[in-house]
Amino acid sequence: MHVIARKGWEIPESLATPESVFLNRRALLTGAGAIGAGAMLAPGAAFAQKADPSAHLYPVPRNENFKLDRALTPEDVNARYNNFYEFGTTKNIAAAAQRLQIRPWTIKIDGLVEKEREIGIDDLLKVVQLEERLYRMRCVEAWSMTVPWSGFAMKQLVDLAKPASGAKFIRIETFMDPKIAPGQRQVWYPWPYVDGCTIEEARNDLAFMVTGAYGKPLGNQFGAPLRVHMPWKYGFKAVKSIRRITFTNERPVSFWEKAQASEYGFWANVNPAIAHPRWSQATEEVLGEGRRVPTLIWNGYGEFVADMYKGMEGEKLFI
Ligand code: MTE
Fold this sequence. Notes:
Shape: globular
Number of helices: 8
Number of domains: 1
Largest sheet: 7 strands, mixed
Number of strands: 12
CATH architecture: Alpha-Beta Complex
Structural class: alpha+beta
CATH topology: Sulfite Oxidase, Chain A, domain 2
Distance between the termini: 22 Å
Bound molecules: ligand MTE
């Protein structure tokens, strides 16, 4: 039985919001005072990395089918306000996350597939079609961002894996290395971070495997070199720094579900009418803008996803 320590995203919004405002303000002050406005949008410079061997692939062409009705979250705001519990329970993990070595990096594809394999991230990038999509991202902590993600349709991954007919679910697992990830030494959490989806969800047009953001390879704090984004679901479904993808006939039990089954379920679709035990989901803070807006069911993507859940009224579809 795990002892559950207070999670970072359990901090009340009244505490979380000033942190983001503080970080923003600090970034703005440093940027404006020291190096001018242009540099304020270059957080990569603050977290020097070895050159990413995939850098030449970016920027990738934008797919105009994925449009936004909101301004993009400035990169500097997004890059300094992250959930990545392997590197700490605050939002301020960007510097610590630079310890993750993202090359060499392989991803194991196993379980109920035609042939199990391990593929290097750069080999994977050669066989998928990269594009940019502008997406909303809604965290269950009731904040949201809008991000220009680069990556490839998740259905390309399913096609590559060739799942057997009995496979229904995909279990997605991150890296495990407590030497560089201090959070993984906190033994009360059920490491490694895992989440998943159905194969039907993965084949949905919106489901996206993310390899870059803001026209560059993904920064470590965003989950380099590969993460998920399913914009109609809460952000905790978006496993970062993926190491293993397993096709299975069993519904995966996620990290948060294992940690606190009374608060987190498998589907976790966004719904303003269903409150999380500790946060109302009715509205969200738009990060970087300091305003709250009403949250939309399915995070505004119902037209593309609601049909998948028809006839599943008995399921806990939200949270
Ligand atoms: N993936 C891993 N490996 N570890 C994490 O702690 N946090 C999740 C998700 N993916 C998490 C993770 C949560 S709670 C959220 S809200 C999003 O990542 C945050 O993504 P962002 O930092 O890019 O906004």
